[in-house]
Amino acid sequence: MRTIRFSRKQLCIPYALFLFCFVVLPLAVIVYYAFTDGSGHFTLANLISFFTNGNTIGTLCYSIVTAAAVTAVCLVIAYPTAYVLARSGLKRGPVLLMLFILPMWINFTLRITALKEILTVIEGNLSLHPFLNTVIAMTYDFLPFMILPLYTTLLELDESLLEAARDLGAGEAEVFLRVTLPLSMPGVVSGITMTFLPAMTNYVILDMMYNSTYIMGSLIGSYFNIYDWNNGSMISLILFGLICLVSWVTGRGGANDAENRGAIL
Amino acid sequence: MTAENRNRKNPSGRLCACLCGAALLTALVHPGSGGEVRAASGGDGASSPDEKVVLRIANWEEYIDEGGWDEEEIIELDDRAGTSILGENSMVEDFEQWYLDTYGVEVEVEYSTFGTNEDLYNQMTLGNEFDLVCPSEYMFMKLIAEDRLQPLSEQFYDEDIEENYYVRGVSDYIRNIFDTNTINGQSWSTYAAGYMWGTTGIVYNPDEITKEEASRWALLADPQYRGQVTIKDNVRDSYFAALGILFEDELMDPDFIRSEDRLERIAELMNRTDDETVEKAEDILKEMKANAYSFESDSGKADMVTGKVLANYQWSGDAVYTLDQAEIDDYYLAYAVPEESTNVWFDGWVMLKDGIEGNAAKQQAAEAFMNFVSRPDNVVRNMYYIGYTSVIAGGDSDVIFAYADWCYGAEDDAGETIEYPTGAFFTGDAADPDYIITAEADQADRQLYAQYPPQEVLDRAVVMQYFDQENNQKINQMWVNVRCFDLTSLTASDWGVILAAAAVILIAGIWFMRRFWPRKMIRRKDQRKEHEKNIRG
């Protein structure tokens, strides 16, 4: 029997095809629509109207503020949690971690529906605090994405460095601030990337929490709903550019710690 | 040569992939040019009558009887013939069988569903081909305007043909609207056969909100019920409500109400799209947004039933569903139609040129389907299953009125009852003594009122026209403005707070970095100093 062997190139074919059909081609279509008008002629009007329209800029600011608030809350909750899970030598650490990840196995619309009922019991009327509810729901949804990378980086932290710092006379607080925190930055960065960006676009949560103010995702959706594919594509493209920019900026900070970059599980 | 080598050196494979990609790209960029391969029997117009006809139908989700009723669900009507109705098979299966029995032609229905009119339109634009679809009136107006529909045959309106259940049964009130409403000079009835219809109004909790309050559009922006009402998450319905508030004084003026041409004047007001009206509507919608519990497209029914909100802007069909659901928990809600005006809406069957044109066998099957769902017993099955009101009044048959009576007629031991006239829909004579239902008194504000509005409601029920491209864009832009965060709404003190917060974060960050961050480039001198210090220490 002849052994069948595949070269590396051939092994890449399935993914390359997938990438081409579902990433490159759609992107090309988006670019086409973004720079044309209804009748298919080249135009920059969509680009210009994005930056000259107070509404789109307002929505962009609102999205950024929402996403920043969600990310900040996630970080504040996730860091101590991950620290305890990874550093305090709990016997059942992995089990506890599993408990935090477990909700991800249930569809998020179901979880948000349940959360809505809980919040209704607590607040009475959800419509009175739309922004707060959105932040709570998104935090609830994205928290595991923040905990996981932090947990991984903190777990791999070299104990000898901490001992060295203590030997050199640093107090516990200083050890944390000067050694642990800087060394866990790659985890923080990938955690932020994984919560900030989806939080700018996940309008399903927004709708479910009765927040009637659009974020970027809903704005794009609304344009496609009224058949204005050109403006919708342009806003998608601008958001795409923005995401690339954020990834690039946050990515630069941790570039030296190449081994820690893939901090996500 | 091994398999590996052959593959690697084979340039035609790569070429093939490129071509596929290019084809896909063209299909996406020019929707409709590529698209699906047509069904074997469709499109070419040369199919002989013996051949199997494939009919591709797209309808709303859960908008046709799917059969499978329990034996106990049998509806025994009190009509002349003593009809019993039970949905055993789905309507579509029954149609296939009936068509074979009646015309001796085999038909295969490919049935699919859509969630919103826009969803259907996008599906069609992306190359999904259908023969017969059931959009709402504004969408079929759009399709007529775009010349994408196949006109109904003359034969379809021939009342002498036994199987023409639609034209023999459709309510005169509805028939008149379909005949008189035109787009680009062509009446709706040239292209469309009605399916379900209703009004728009407000479902409310009568314990908390009076009927008088619920009968005014202003309720939706009333600060007294802040966070207690929901509004439709689509521009047309919300715009209509906003105009109802905007023109309230005019619409409620006694002289206006008494005027001969009241209906035309309401229609003119409620279809205004001039800049000034749109601007004012935008302000009202912003008020409504600040006041509402939410904009909803589906969740409003559940929120109403669970008591999260007190009032809910709703279509009459969904209002009936909401009232029914709440009733299961002994929670009694009511439905009101605003005194100013209401939007009479329709869902109707239309045939698409893409699929039908030049294929007589297919067109016959499509028209037969419209007739089949208009057959009185089938109308009852659909109405029972969906809970909406059919446009069919029954014509010679009294089955449909008997069903209305079966639904809402009071039991003999009922308490207070009323004589509720339904003639406005069934015969066109509002006071027709043969079409009076003796119902429980509260039905005048509940399901019966929603399903069969009395004449005084029809007197203020107008069609909301399809806006042309330019106006449509203007109104859609207005809607986006309403929904987006308005930077100009921030006051100077808001900006002060924002800037102060940003400054605090920035300063704290800088301080933290300077104080604690490990510096890579510590100057040699400092390093030596610290080293000496450590040794001494």
In short:
Chain A has 265 residues and is mainly α. Chain A has 13 helices and no strands. By secondary structure, chain B is α/β, with parallel strands linked by helices.
Protein described:
The complex is a heterodimer of chains A (265) and B (537). Helix content of chain A is 77%, strand content 0%. Chain A has 265 residues and is an all-alpha fold. In chain A, 33% of the residues are buried. With 537 residues, chain B is α/β, with parallel strands linked by helices. Chain B contains 25 helices and 20 strands. Mean pLDDT of chain B is 86; it is low at 1-47. The A-B interface holds A 4-7, 9-10, 17, 20-21, 25-26, 28-29, 32, 54-59, 61-62, 120, 125-128, 168, 174, 177-179, 181-182, 208, 210, 212-214, 218-219, 222-228 and B 2-4, 7-8, 17, 21, 24-25, 28-29, 118, 121-122, 125, 227-228, 235, 289, 292-296, 299, 308, 472-473, 476, 479-481, 483-488, 516-518, 534.
Strand tally of chain A is 0
Morphology of chain B: globular
| Regions with little confidence, pLDDT below 50 for 5+ residues of chain B | 1-47
Rough outline of chain A: globular
Distance between the termini of chain B: 77 Å
Proportion of strand residues of chain B: 5-15%
Mean of residue pLDDT values of chain B = 86
The pair of chains with the biggest contact is: A-B, 48 and 42 residues
Helix proportion range of chain A: over 70%
User: What is the helix/strand order of chain A?
Assistant: HHHHHHHHHHHHH
Instruction: Determine the N-to-C terminus distance of chain A.
Output: 40 Å
Q: How many individual β-strands of chain B?
A: 20
